[in-house]
Amino acid sequence: MLDRNGQRLLTAAFGLVLLAIPFVVHDSYYLHLFVVAAIFVIVAVGLDLIVGYVGQLSLAHAAFFGLGAYISALLSLRLQWSMWIGLPAAALFTGLVAFLLGLVILRTRGHRFIIITVAFAELMKLVATNWVDVTRGFMGLPGLKIPNLYVPGIGAVDISSKERFYYVVLAAAVIAFLLCRTMVRSSIGRAFVLVRENEGLAESLGISAFRYCMIAFVVGAALAGGAGSLYAHYVGFVSPDLFNFSYVTIMLIMVILGGKGTLIGPALGAVIFTFLPELLREASHWRMIIFALILIVTTLFMPRGIIFPLLEHVVPKRWRARHVDAS
Amino acid sequence: MVILGQHLFNGLLIGCAYALIAIGLTMIFGVMNIANFAHGEFYMLGGFVAYYLVSLVGFNYFLALPTAVVLVVVLAIILQHSIFRRLRDAPLMTTTLVTIGLSIFLEHSALMLWGPQPQSIPNPFPTKPLSFFGIYTTPLYIFSMAVTAALIVVGHLLIRRTRMGKAMRATFQNKEASALVGIRIDRIYMYTFAFGAALAAAAGAVLGGFIPVEPTAGGIITLKAFIVVILGGLGSFVGAIVGGILLGIAEALGAGYMPAGWKDAIGFFAVILVLLLRPEGLFKRA
């Protein structure tokens, strides 16, 4: 256990490591993985708000990611909007869609909720595949570019190299993480946990379960949409494959294995599960079989996940008290 | 008018198959309180095992179908003993995540064993179309239709008319009281699970003659079956049958009158509508 100064030191050291990555890692492929990992950190902390904090199993998260990617791609290719406007627009639009969907499905709980999130995800895939006039169907939308960054005093900076774009996604991931952390440490976060642990009690105290589920759902979806937009511009191409069910499975594994109901756990889970699949690339079918077994075993025998319980020895008690999670 | 009749007729078979799969799903949900997201994999396995028995081992078609069902049931019993027993009374999040994991596990095991190519089960029926009242069909279609319809009736009789079925329904209504009067709950769980897996495997084996079987077929079938179950009312046997046939027919009409590719959307809209207007499903719990 570390004291307060120790924690600051640890955080600072961790931050320095993150900043130093492009100087240390020269292999373009590994750098690529770091960029993708940072994008998935945004996705995972957003999903954790829904799955970990308000305790609703949403399988629509990959669909929100894909939706954000498509919106951003369409804005960029059809209307020539730059990513700097397209990204917030994609996040807002995805949040709006989640709000409308939430109006219908957050009235339900349990099985119905889960099934409708799957149905929504499949519907998004159908739209991306079949609305050929707009989405070009299976051919996807290629040709997305990373725009210049305008820095006051310096002018346009080209950030399209992996080394530079890494800092953009790192900044985005840190902002997303801090946003979620501020949220779960506030009264909103306490309401989330109460709704998860005892919805009846929450309602009897005047805390609307519907409202707090909606907040988590919309914020989580908007983060996924924003991450999708970053991903689309980084990879330069979107296709209906983004809506495949395997994506949402991997996102869930990031959250569950990391430790749902904590933020640092899923964030690290996102990094580990961006790298692990790539390292297992030699055996692509074995990879999914191994993941499935990890998901089954973790859920059955280690409901608190793996990463966060390991971290507890280093992470201060102060954090633990906030991130408390029994199930 | 004849074309409409043709669409309705085409929808009937797939509707019966949906019904068969949904019956098992709704029974497992009602009795064991598990939302089995791996249920469609039994459909996929039924089709694949039948295909391999016929085309590689050289089994007779009519012998291969029941053998495939038996083999899938053996697997289901193993899974029930190793995994599903632990899920009893577990939180919904746990059961869902574990069965999703199981579904991916089975799908990718099938991909590794059999490869990604869709396969049609060879069958001994003549391919010459039959026609009556202007509606065209094939002998294989009539056979499959008869088998699925017969299985639905058999399933219904099993649940309504036998002691075992009575015990299942009792467990469905109240576990503790059933255990109190001497029903062996563990056995009921096992029979329910095996029964559900058998119906899904049979649907897969029978439909494998028309719809090529592929390792990835399980996921969408699970989703369709869940849609049927929600439409019919969670835990309702009659609801599963009527919901399945309705969805099959609606999709066939959609395939006939809507642009290609959109028919799968019908079920999703239906389920959202039902949820808005009649959240308990079209039929109450039976």
* Beta-strand proportion of chain A: under 5%
Number of helices of chain B: 11
Under the CATH scheme, the architecture of chain A is: Orthogonal Bundle
Ranges of chain A with pLDDT <50 over ≥5 residues? Answer: 321-327
Based on CA atoms alone, the radius of gyration of chain B comes out at 19 Å
Helix content, binned percent of chain A? over 70%
- Count of DSSP E strands of chain A? 4
Order of strands across the widest beta sheet of chain B? 1-2
What does the oligomeric state look like here? heterodimer
Main interface: chain pair and counts: A-B, 39 and 42 residues
Q: Structural class of chain A, please? A: mainly alpha
What characterizes the major β-sheet of chain A? 2 strands, antiparallel
Give average pLDDT of chain A, whole number: 82
Elements of chain B, N to C (H/E): HHHHEEHHHHHHH
Structural class of the helices, strands and pairings of chain B? mainly alpha
Number of domains of chain B: 1
SSE order of chain A, one letter for each helix or strand: HHHHHHEEEHHHHEHHHHH
Report the average pLDDT across residues of chain B: 85
What's the story with the biggest beta sheet of chain B? Answer: 2 strands, antiparallel
Helix content bin of chain B: over 70%
In short:
The complex is a heterodimer of chains A (327) and B (286). Chain A is mostly helical and 327 residues long.
Would you give an account of this structure?
The complex is a heterodimer of chains A (327) and B (286). Chain A is built from 15 helices and 4 strands. Chain A has a single domain (25-320), classed as Orthogonal Bundle (ABC transporter involved in vitamin B12 uptake, BtuC). Mean pLDDT of chain A is 82; it is low at 321-327. The longest helix of chain A has 27 residues, at 209-235. In chain A, α2 (28-53) runs antiparallel to α10 (209-235) and α8 crosses α10. Chain A is 73% helix and 3% strand. Chain A has 327 residues and is mainly α. By secondary structure, chain B is an all-alpha fold. Chain B has one domain (2-277): ABC transporter involved in vitamin B12 uptake, BtuC, CATH 1.10.3470. Chain B has helices at 2-32, 39-57, 61-87, 92-114, 139-161, 163-173, 175-180, 185-207, 217-232, 237-257, 264-277, and strands spanning 130-132, 135-137. Chain B has a two-stranded antiparallel ribbon. In chain B, a hairpin with a 2-residue loop joins β1 and β2. The two termini of chain B are 36 Å apart. Chains A and B meet through α5, α11 and α13 of A and α4, α9 and α11 of B.
